[in-house]
């Protein structure tokens, strides 16, 4: 039986011109528009743009940022307080020869001095408009964010015994600085505005930290236990009722399983050196996936672990679990990844990493680390039989935590204890109205009658021919399949390399072929892959050509093929001439982005699959060249899944989470919000009938294309994978499990919605 049950419920302006580097608006460090582009910024554009987007920094009125200019000491203090969300006060009296009560900047400096973030100079001055050195910056950062740690390297100009030694090493140990290529840190140099911005962006958001490129020694991974805590949960009578594990991550927050803190009145943590801290409370939780985010009263002197992804491990990889089983603090166990599992039930689905490292009671909520030191999972549950242990994939944790990245720590609110749900193990919950649960259930809606044609082999991806009764797909064995759903004739064609995605255009199929595994650390200069072109008129292989890219998704227009890369983090989308097979153009894109071609063939949309919040981007194209590209005006404002479909008229982008956006040629209106419909897994359009259809599980829903109102719903047999409309009829690719063995069978079903409903 499981030793941990996985609980789920479906359930302002600047006073001085010289200080215009900073924005004093601190209401909410978020933006719904694109950050400005500075004409003098060529390095660290993403970091500077990120901080500008958060409202933390701003440039000058001449649209410059002046990245090489030095940061002033007062500026640094103001920015640090703003990042933390601390309101400056004149409650303390400080004695500086050059800064007194009533002076501009006095409240900020007084507050920072009281908090131990800064101090004055030996001559009794503070020198608010003096240049801040890199060494002074390191001390301010370490003091403000409670950074500690020892880097595994040494800087040539920072020696043990130097006053800055521990501060510089704390920055390096936390991934905020790596120094210069010559091995120096240059502590006496004035810190430039762009470097200050980079360091701050790295502290706020792990995505800006340099990636770990080489596996760590086992002892280096085990040393991550300094970031793991034991969680003690008490009831209102101060009785210990539960104990588990957790770890410190972005913004000083602590991650654990929800069932660890379930029913508690307050919580304490014990750290690796025996210190005990009471926690302020719960910031957020996800009952479906058994995640809780906890907040200490203050930033703790603990290094923050970086959250990775299930894609960072594969079967056979070494992993290390750290936790406090049976109260034995900081127990380390090692094992391998047994598999990556996808579980689903009653509309809930999640990914888990199965592993062999021994864990038991008290390990819940602890991190599962790969050999690069990233958290790839949160230990969640296990089975005693066969030592089958499972960790929730870190992707789900990252999705939840992402809303609190960039939010000032001291502005993070908590949920009152009495508003937290209490889950009773093994007992049914009462309905929300407090009434009794009954035995009566609504009878299931009968499935509509369809014409059904079962497939011999299941398809992992598929696409419909726009005018012929043909479905193309890639089957589980990597073959290309052509299925005529009227004649039931099936053709199969083998490919010499693993195939992943396909796209129909010009009476051709364009298929991505892989020459390696997608990886965040497979850099573009080393990537390789291929594209297959198949003539659909004859269903024969026309050409396979190699590309210097790891292909992830593919679209095409009349002459060019466009391919996104699946590896290398910030990488490229490239275009290729479909007749000469030569590369034509490229543009930057996030790895593993899905593509959608506008029917006008003048724009490609891309959506990220490995970032949170997800991001949509538009690429304008002309004659195979990327002429411009820009992000969506939103960042985490609306629910987004990894899949999106553009309407047949090219006017709307339908994200499968149910969020609908405009698709226009104007940047001011492109990708702006329209409305929300029910989430779906498949969508098809019938412009002649002014209707579009969505499929989710076994339910088909018809919507009016003008009003987006629901017109009708039907239930079909099987789970809907893909939808298409042909001559008013709905063509569906569905999956069923008709046998007791659980074997899944796919079918093509044809349904006439007008005959059934009078649409």
From TrEMBL:
Signal peptide segment: 1-25
Gene3D superfamilies membership: 2.40.10.120, YVTN repeat-like/Quinoprotein amine dehydrogenase
InterPro entries, per the entry: Peptidase_S1_PA, Peptidase_S1C, Quinoprotein_ADH-like_sf, SLH_dom, WD40/YVTN_repeat-like_dom_sf
The SLH domain, residue ranges: 31-91, 92-150, 151-214
GO biological process annotation, one example: proteolysis
UniProt entry keywords in alphabetical sequence: Hydrolase, Protease, Serine protease, Signal
A GO term, aspect molecular function: serine-type endopeptidase activity
Pfam families: SLH, Trypsin_2
Protein known as: S1-C subfamily serine protease
Species, as recorded: Thermaerobacillus caldiproteolyticus
């Amino acid at each position: 039986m499981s030793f941990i049950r996985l609980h789920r419920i479906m359930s302002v302006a600047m006073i001085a011109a010289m200080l215009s580097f900073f924005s004093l608006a601190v209401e909410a460090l978020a933006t719904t528009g694109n950050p400005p582009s500075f004409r003098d910024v060529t390095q660290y554009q993403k970091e500077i743009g990120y901080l500008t987007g958060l409202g933390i920094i701003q440039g000058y009125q001449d649209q410059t940022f002046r990245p090489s200019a030095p940061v002033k000491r007062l500026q640094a203090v103001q920015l640090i307080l703003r990042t933390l969300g601390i309101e400056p006060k004149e409650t303390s009296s400080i004695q500086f020869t050059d800064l007194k009560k009533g002076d501009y900047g006095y409240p900020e400096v007084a507050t920072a001095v009281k908090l131990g973030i800064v101090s004055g100079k030996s001559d009794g001055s503070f020198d608010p408009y003096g240049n801040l050195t890199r060494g002074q910056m390191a001390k301010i950062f370490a003091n403000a964010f409670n950074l500690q740690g020892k880097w595994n390297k040494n800087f040539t100009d920072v020696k043990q015994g130097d006053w800055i030694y521990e501060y510089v090493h704390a920055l390096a140990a936390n991934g905020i600085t790596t120094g210069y290529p010559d091995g120096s840190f240059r502590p006496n140099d004035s810190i430039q505005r762009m470097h200050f911005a980079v360091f701050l962006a790295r502290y706020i958001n792990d995505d800006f930290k340099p990636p770990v490129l080489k596996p760590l020694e086992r002892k280096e991974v085990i040393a991550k236990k300094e970031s793991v805590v034991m969680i003690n949960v008490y009831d209102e009578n101060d009785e210990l009722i539960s104990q588990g594990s957790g770890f410190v991550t972005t913004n000083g927050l602590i991650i654990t399983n929800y069932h660890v803190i379930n029913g508690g009145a307050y919580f304490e943590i014990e750290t690796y050196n025996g210190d005990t801290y009471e926690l302020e409370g719960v910031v957020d939780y996800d009952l479906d996936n058994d995640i809780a985010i906890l907040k200490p009263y203050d930033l703790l002197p603990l290094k923050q672990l970086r959250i990775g992804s299930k894609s960072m491990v594969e079967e056979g990889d070494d992993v290390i679990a750290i936790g406090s089983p049976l109260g034995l603090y900081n127990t380390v166990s090692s094992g391998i990844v047994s598999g990556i599992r996808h579980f689903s039930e009653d509309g809930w689905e999640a990914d888990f990493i199965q592993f062999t490292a021994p864990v038991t009671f008290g390990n819940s909520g602890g991190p599962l680390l790969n050999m690069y030191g990233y958290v790839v999972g949160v230990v969640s549950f296990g089975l005693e039989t066969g030592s089958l242990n499972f960790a929730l994939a870190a992707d789900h944790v990252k999705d939840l935590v992402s809303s609190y990245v960039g939010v000032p720590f001291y502005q993070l609110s908590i949920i009152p204890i009495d508003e937290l749900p209490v889950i009773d193990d093994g007992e049914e919950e009462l309905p929300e109205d407090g009434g009794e649960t009954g035995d009566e259930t609504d009878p299931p809606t009968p499935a509509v009658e369809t014409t059904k044609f079962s497939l011999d082999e299941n398809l992992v991806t598929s696409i419909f021919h726009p005018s012929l009764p043909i479905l193309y797909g890639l089957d589980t064995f990597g073959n290309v399949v052509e299925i005529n759903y009227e004649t039931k004739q099936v053709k199969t064609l083998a490919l010499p390399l693993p195939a992943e995605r396909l796209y129909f255009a010009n009476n051709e199929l364009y298929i991505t072929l892989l020459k390696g595994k997608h990886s965040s650390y497979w850099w573009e200069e080393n990537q390789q892959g291929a594209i297959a072109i198949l003539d659909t008129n004859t269903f024969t292989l026309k050409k396979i050509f190699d590309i210097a890219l790891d292909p992830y998704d593919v679209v095409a227009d009349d002459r060019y093929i466009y391919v996104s890369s699946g590896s290398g983090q910030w990488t490229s989308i490239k275009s290729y001439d479909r007749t000469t097979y030569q590369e034509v153009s490229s543009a930057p894109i996030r790895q593993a982005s899905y593509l959608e071609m506008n029917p006008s063939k003048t724009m490609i949309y891309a959506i990220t699959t490995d970032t949170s919040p997800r991001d949509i981007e538009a690429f304008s194209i002309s004659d195979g060249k990327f002429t411009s590209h820009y992000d969506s005006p939103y960042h985490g404002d609306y629910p987004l899944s990894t899949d999106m479909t553009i309407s047949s008229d090219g006017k709307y982008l339908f994200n499968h989470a149910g969020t609908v956006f405009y698709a226009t040629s104007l940047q001011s209106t492109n990708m702006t919000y329209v409305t929300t419909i029910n989430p779906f897994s498949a969508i098809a359009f019938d412009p002649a009938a002014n209707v579009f259809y969505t499929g989710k599980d076994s339910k088909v829903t018809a919507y009016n294309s003008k009003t987006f109102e629901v017109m009708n719903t039907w239930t079909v047999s099987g789970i809907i994978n893909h939808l298409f409309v042909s001559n008013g009829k709905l063509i569906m690719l569905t999956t069923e499990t008709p046998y007791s063995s659980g074997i899944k069978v796919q079918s093509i079903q044809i349904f006439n919605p007008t005959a059934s409903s009078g649409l």
